[in-house]
Amino acid sequence: MDSNEVNKLLAGFLGTVFIVFSVGIVSDALFASPTPEKPGFAIEATEPAEGGPAAPAAEAKPIAELLATANAEAGAAIFKKCQACHSGEKGGPNKVGPDLWDIIDRPVAEHEGFAYSADMKEFSKGGSEKWTYDNLNHFITSPKKFVKGTAMGFAGLPKDEDRANVIAYLRTLSDNPKPLPAPGASAENAPAKPAEGAAPAKPAEGAAPAAPAAPAK
User: How many CA atoms lie within 13 A of 162 on its CB side?
Assistant: First the structure.
């Protein structure tokens, strides 16, 4: 191979290297993304102080307060979702879930002809526990949280308004709808009962003795 051929090959190689480096330099200049001096926004996560008190949870509204402004007609529309598993008419059939006619204050897990789960029967305490307005409110919020192990697959109604409307509608499914709970009434306002075996409270000094109780008839 003569010197001219060698020179041509070297010239071609050097030219190729020059082009490759030139393309790399131009690409870096076009697509470079320098770090801004000040970011557009910063995400800050505030961690609670170690050992500090946890933030208080939002207090749930009492069902009596919710029912005071509930709309049974709106509840009837929501109840249509429940009809895949429950009937609501008098003497209606049990489906995946029991018939819900006259459900307010009905003993839990005692509806005739329906096979309840063991956990629901345990919650029922032999029928002494009833479907009060308060129990229904907690159960419809999250069935599996209120009665752990229940076979009910419904996730629940997290919105206060929806639950109140449904419960107001369930109240109408009865020949004798149960009275609505009085707003503001709660167990906390009821007078405390003395512990079993405790001596009765003494009357204040100078107060008239209490009248004897009337005999039971």
Answer: 13
